[in-house]
Specification:
The structure is a single chain. This protein has four helices and no strands. The protein is an all-alpha fold and 99 residues long. The protein has one domain. Helix 1 runs antiparallel to helix 3. The chain is globular and about 30 Å long.
Length: 99
């Protein structure tokens, strides 16, 4: 059985962002072990997400995973077929004027 743990809050403060969605994801994982379980490719930040996305899109817990990632914006790894922290990097780059 896969056990998912929520990332530790930053700065010693309890961060409740995504708590409900995380509990829903944990509940789904009590009955289903997704293909990403114990697969280091999903926790690394150097693997291209295209192949991993195809695994995620066929996953029975995709909905719960996506809901959690959309709210919590995990700082690393692939969640529901993408890296959610890249959005912030892309937005910053778009705002910077070209030299």
């Amino acid at each position: 059985m896969t056990r998912v743990t929520s990332p530790a809050p930053k700065g010693g403060q309890q961060d409740r962002r995504g708590a409900r969605e995380f509990l829903e994801l944990q509940a789904a994982l009590m009955t289903i072990e997704p293909k990403c379980a114990n697969d280091q490719r999903f926790t690394g930040d150097t693997i291209d997400t295209e192949y991993l996305r195809s695994i995620c899109f066929a996953c029975p817990v995709l909905h719960e995973c996506r809901n959690y990632a959309r709210v919590a914006k995990p700082a690393g790894g692939v969640w529901a077929g993408r890296r959610w922290y890249e959005d912030k990097r892309t937005q910053v780059k778009k705002r910077t004027p070209a030299a």
